[in-house]
Every structure is written in structure tokens, then in C-alpha cells.
Specification:
The protein is built from 15 helices and 21 strands. By secondary structure, the chain is of the alpha+beta class. It has two domains: 263 residues, no CATH class; 139 residues, no CATH class. Strands 1, 4, 5, 6, 8, 9, 10, 11 and 12 form a nine-stranded mixed sheet that branches. α4 crosses α7.
Length: 434
């Protein structure tokens, strides 16, 4: 059974923070070094100092980014920069944004979710990496809090929960333009009747992790660690719950973008690789005209060439040219993933990892983190190669939401970084202290 609960959320104090836009931040995992500096400079109470504090050469066991986050979090609460609600509440959340000149509104709500360590009612669709889990566990240990939510999807064909929430919305407690130029609005509802209705609607649902696989597994690890340490086996203990944002899987405001692969491997020979890939793909070479120099222009060309209704297409980008790879036959994957479902074998991201990376580039689970980095920004997949930071990149089409559901339902995992949901949540809107 899915169990959810309201909570006494911690939010910025509008009496002390007169411009809340300056203290909110992007999710930790999309913050670059440059962005980190910008948000540090924007305000002394910017949330980035908690979720992704700076690291220094003199850092030690006694003084590091996690302990600094703990001290800041506690001092901001003590000084009432952050204030806790007096009532257990849920926090409806809407994000208005444009994508491809189309206006969209994502509808969700913050609530506590009881952890499902066996993944019976909470389904994951991606593998997780060890380094991000260790990082988030250290932060949770220090702060004893959920500083950012996990985004999960539920199935509600009639949209009953969203309709009930919308009927009870008045003025938002936060209404800001985020770092992304999207409009973010947050409300607070402590009406027990509405909360009970939501609990009843969700109890027999299956939830699918959209964003936050590492944070969800970290919550499980943290709960197990605390149980072992304290011998507290109370199923309703606060560490058995995790702050999440729930969104209807049918919400028209959800978008999925691709995550491109950046490759750093010095022993790769471009022409040899292309020749090997000809066994599996029809390959078209595209040289970039001398007058087209901007990464944005190049990425638009590539995205246009990648458009397809049902073919499996990838773009291999090297400096000043790219190759469009179109899989010749899906049955190739029967050989390289015989133990997987047909849905898994026909995912673009599975094909990329099994046939291209593993079979032809010798990049597998054991060395993946050393050779593959990720970007959701089309232009970065171009500019990072042009600047010599990476040897090449693979640009791809997005995973479909139906594929995500089928994979999660079957208990399978896509390769990591298979999906990138838009819009992204703002960090700092609300947090949960255990």
C-alpha cells in the first residue's frame, strides 16, 4: 500500500527575505561550477549553500561541505531565515513554461511518502551510480533533512486529485520566476478532508520515479542506517518517510528530453569506429559548412536529422562533422540483451549502450563513470567536443513516457540518465526536517 502524509514544511521567511528569487536554486544535479558561483553571489542565504556547497583544498573530516551545510541549515532556522509550518500540510506546486513555443503547466504537490525499500509500490526505471548516492547520503546524515524532493508519477486517468486540489487553491505563498525563466507557484493546504481524499486515492496506486533515483535509494540506505544505529523499528518513524513531489503521469505539463552522452576515451579511432558500426547501422556522414559555427546552429541541424517516427537514430558528433546512425534491424539486440524484455531491447538508450558503447567501444558498467559524462543541453554536446574536453558525443531522441512505465512495471532498469524530465523543480521552496 502507498502511504503518504502531510508534514510541517520549512520555507523561507518572507519577512526576512524580501526577494525570494535570489535565494532559490536549481536542483543540485544540474548545477555547474559557473552556476554555483552565480548562486553563491546572488544572496548570502541562497539554497545552493545547502544542497551543493563549495569544496576547498583544506576540507577535512571536521570541516567540509556537508558539515557547513548542517551548520548553515541550523543557523538559518535559529535566525528564522527559514521557518517551519505550525500545521501538517501538503504543498501544491505549479510550473508554467514554454517548450517549442507551446505553453504548458505542470501540476504537482509536495507530500511525504513512506519509503518502499523493496520497490514493490515505488518503481524505478534507471540504474544508479555510486558517487551521487554517497554524496547525498553524506548530506542527509549531516542535516537530518530532505532538502530537495524526489519527483514521482502516479496514474490518475480522471485527474481526480488535481481537480480537488485546484478547487481549494487561493493565493500562492510563493510566486516567482525561476533560474529557468519559468513561473513557479507554491501553495499550502492543511485541510484534513482534502489530505484524506488524496491518501485514499493513492493507497492502491503504483508510483514511478521520474527524477531522483539516487535520492530515493539514499533515503532507503539512510533509514536502514538509522535503524541499525538506534534500534528504532517504529515503521512510522520520521526517517521512514521521504519528501516527494507527486505528478499525474497523464499531466500535459510533463515533457521528457533526451540526455546526450559525452565520451572521453583517447584510444578511440574515429574512422575505425565508424567502420565497425556499419555492421549494425546505416551511416550518413554530414560535414558542417564553414559558415555554421555556433553550437546552437549545429545542434539544430543534428536534431532535425534525428527526427523519426519509429526508427532508432543517433548522431555521433566529432569536431566539424557528424554521422547519423540508423539501426538496421532491432533483432541485433536479441543477441546482446537476450535476458531483457522486448521493450528494454528496443529502447534507444539500451541500443546505444549495448551495441555502440559496450560492443564497439569497450565501455561497460565497470568503466562507464570514467569515460561517459552526460548533458541535457544540445549545444553542450557540441561545444564540449569542439573545445577538446571530450573526444566525441552521441546525441539522441528522448525516451517516451509509455516506455518508462513499461520498463518500471516489469521491474527492469534502463541505463542511467535515460530520461530528463522538464520542467525541473526549484530547490528551496520547501524542505522537511526529520
Amino acid at each position: 500500500m502507498v502511504e503518504v502524509a502531510p508534514f510541517k514544511g520549512i520555507t523561507y521567511n518572507p519577512k526576512l527575505i524580501d526577494n525570494i528569487e535570489k535565494v532559490l536554486a536549481p536542483p543540485y544535479d544540474i548545477i555547474s561550477k559557473t552556476m554555483q558561483e552565480r548562486f553563491y553571489d546572488s544572496h548570502e542565504n541562497n539554497y545552493v549553500r545547502l544542497i551543493l556547497g563549495k569544496q576547498y583544498p583544506a576540507d577535512s573530516k571536521e570541516n567540509n561541505r556537508y558539515l557547513r551545510a548542517k551548520n548553515l541549515f541550523e543557523s538559518w532556522i535559529k535566525d528564522k531565515v527559514l521557518i517551519q509550518s505550525d500545521t501538517n500540510s501538503i504543498y501544491p506546486y505549479k510550473i508554467e513554461y514554454k517548450i517549442k513555443n507551446q505553453k504548458k503547466i505542470m501540476n504537482g504537490f509536495f507530500i511525504l511518502l513512506k519509503i518502499d525499500p523493496d520497490y514493490k509500490k515505488v518503481k524505478a526505471h534507471e540504474k544508479t551510480l555510486s558517487k551521487p548516492k554517497e554524496d547525498r547520503l553524506n548530506l542527509m546524515r549531516s542535516c537530518n533533512a530532505n532538502l530537495e524532493p524526489i519527483q514521482l508519477l502516479y496514474i490518475d486517468k480522471n485527474d481526480n486529485i488535481r481537480k480537488e486540489i485546484d478547487k481549494n487553491l487561493t493565493d500562492p505563498i510563493i510566486d516567482v520566476k525561476g533560474y529557468d525563466d519559468f513561473n513557479h507557484k507554491l501553495w499550502k493546504i492543511d485541510n484534513n478532508k482534502i489530505i484524506s481524499m488524496i491518501q485514499e486515492e493513492l493507497k492502491d496506486k503504483i508510483l514511478f520515479i521520474a527524477d531522483g533515483h539516487h535520492r530515493y535509494q539514499t533515503a532507503i540506505n539512510y533509514a536502514n542506517e538509522i535503524k541499525e544505529k538506534t534500534k528504532n523499528n517504529d515503521e512510522n518513524a520520521s526517517f521512514n518517510y521521504r519528501m516527494v513531489i507527486l505528478v499525474n503521469i497523464f499531466d500535459e505539463g510533463l515533457s521528457i528530453l533526451p540526455t546526450h552522452r559525452l565520451i572521453k576515451k583517447n584510444d578511440i579511432n574515429e574512422s575505425e569506429l565508424v567502420n565497425r558500426l556499419k555492421e549494425f547501422f546505416d551511416i550518413e556522414e554530414r560535414k558542417i559548412e564553414y559558415k555554421i559555427t555556433k553550437p546552437l546552429e549545429i545542434s539544430k541541424l543534428i536534431k532535425s536529422d534525428l527526427k523519426t517516427d519509429n526508427a532508432h537514430k543517433f548522431a555521433l558528433y566529432v569536431k566539424n562533422k557528424y554521422y547519423i546512425l540508423t539501426l538496421k534491424d532491432e533483432s541485433f539486440m536479441d543477441q546482446y540483451a537476450p535476458d531483457r524484455s522486448k521493450t528494454w531491447r528496443t529502447l534507444d538508450v539500451s541500443i546505444l549502450h549495448r551495441i555502440i558503447l559496450e560492443k564497439n567501444m569497450n565501455i561497460n558498467d565497470n568503466n562507464l563513470e570514467n569515460h561517459v559524462k552526460y548533458t541535457r543541453v544540445d549545444e553542450e554536446a557540441i561545444s564540449f567536443v569542439d573545445e577538446g574536453k571530450f573526444n566525441m558525443s552521441f546525441l539522441m531522441n528522448p525516451t517516451k513516457i509509455d516506455e518508462l512505465k513499461e520498463i518500471a512495471d516489469a521491474g527492469e532498469h534502463m541505463p542511467q540518465k535515460s530520461t530528463y524530465f522538464l520542467p525541473k523543480m526549484l530547490s528551496g521552496l520547501v524542505s522537511y526536517k526529520m
